[in-house]
Design the sequence.
């Protein structure tokens, strides 16, 4: 898609370069004009189809709340307005075609990062620009008062003086009027003082400060984006390494409802009696998987023999018959609850929105859980 956008921009450049060859003298399209029309329609249809697929793939709502998607929608809509336009009388519509290249910023990751960093750096610079405008306004008022009669083309009124100073700020030389040297050969120190003061205050100080603020904000924004990207990659790796526990719905229900250790034991006992429907006092793999599936959870909990082996640490946590009695069942469930809580703590501590106080709580909890796990292994 990035190549198509670049190709479309190349066609727009060619069309602008040979604009006098797009239409004949009678207003009809030349062969080159018709070719450009076909290419323009082709690119517009392709971009519209890509935009529709993108909106459908994101179920519309995420698409609407994405700034780059809204920019794509605007550009594609403007592209349809320029379809079929090759006449010089309405040639201004070609500007809309040139806007398509903006979509390239959202397609190339490095360009998107640069644009995002610039947008984040603009706000701090606006304060400096406001100061710059105010200082220019002060000098414009002084210029009108001091040189309005002597140089009416440059300083007759405020807006004319402000435009003159803006040109000087953008790099143009000082205008010939007002003249530094008078007709009698003497130096007009009022003009020299005005230009010197403006050069020092605006060109040497405020403009340089605005550039420094922009660079500092841009570098800071780029560094924050890189840190966020690294953190997001680390979170994704952690989530990939932490396998989803098939008993998670049941474990979450147990973890958030019990009040103390005895209450948890009572709940586990009731759960075991519900699973051991035949009252045999033991749950083998098949019976455990079938009974778990019957629990009232949405979606249903589906376990396999491999899951049972993993839960019981290859039957090491079962009794001599390879079944789960009440005691073994409680050990397995408490162990699974501890592992689930620990995995949730890992994800919570990686949360970029977590505050230092959260880490002060989660850190000791993780240590306690690890110590408990080591104690269980020693037993």
Sequence:
């Amino acid at each position: 898609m990035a190549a198509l956008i670049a190709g479309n921009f190349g066609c727009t450049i060619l069309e602008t370069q040979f604009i006098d060859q797009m239409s004949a003298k009678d207003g009809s399209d030349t062969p080159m004009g018709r070719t450009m029309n076909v290419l323009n329609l082709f690119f517009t249809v392709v971009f519209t189809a890509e935009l529709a697929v993108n909106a459908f793939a994101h179920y519309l709502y995420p698409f609407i709340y994405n700034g780059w998607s809204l920019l794509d929608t605007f550009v594609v809509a403007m592209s349809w307005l320029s379809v079929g336009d090759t006449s010089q009388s309405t040639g201004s519509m070609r500007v809309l075609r040139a806007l398509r290249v903006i979509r390239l910023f959202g397609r190339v990751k490095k360009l998107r990062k640069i644009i995002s960093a610039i947008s984040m750096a603009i706000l701090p610079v606006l304060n400096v620009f406001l100061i710059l405008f105010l200082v220019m306004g002060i000098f414009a008022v002084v210029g009108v008062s001091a040189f309005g009669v002597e140089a009416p083309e440059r300083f007759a009124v405020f807006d004319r003086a402000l435009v003159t100073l803006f040109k000087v700020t953008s790099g143009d030389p000082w205008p010939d009027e007002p003249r530094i040297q008078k007709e009698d050969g003497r130096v007009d120190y009022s003009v020299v003082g005005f230009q010197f003061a403006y050069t020092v205050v605006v060109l040497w100080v405020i403009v340089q400060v605005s550039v420094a603020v922009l660079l500092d904000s841009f570098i800071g924004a780029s560094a924050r984006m890189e840190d966020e990207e690294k953190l997001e990659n680390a979170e994704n790796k952690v989530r990939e390494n932490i396998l989803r526990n098939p008993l998670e719905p049941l474990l979450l229900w147990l973890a958030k409802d019990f009040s103390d250790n005895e209450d948890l034991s009572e709940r586990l006992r009731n759960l075991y009696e519900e699973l051991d429907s035949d009252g045999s006092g033991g749950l083998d793999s098949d019976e455990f998987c079938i009974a778990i599936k019957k629990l009232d959870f949405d979606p249903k909990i589906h376990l396999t023999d491999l899951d049972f082996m993993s839960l019981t640490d290859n039957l090491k946590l079962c009794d001599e018959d390879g079944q789960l009695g009440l005691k073994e069942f409680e050990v397995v469930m408490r162990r699974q609850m501890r592992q689930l809580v620990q995995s949730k703590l890992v994800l919570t501590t990686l949360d970029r929105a977590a505050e230092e106080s959260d880490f002060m709580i989660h850190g000791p909890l993780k240590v306690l859980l690890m110590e408990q796990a080591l104690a269980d292994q020693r037993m």
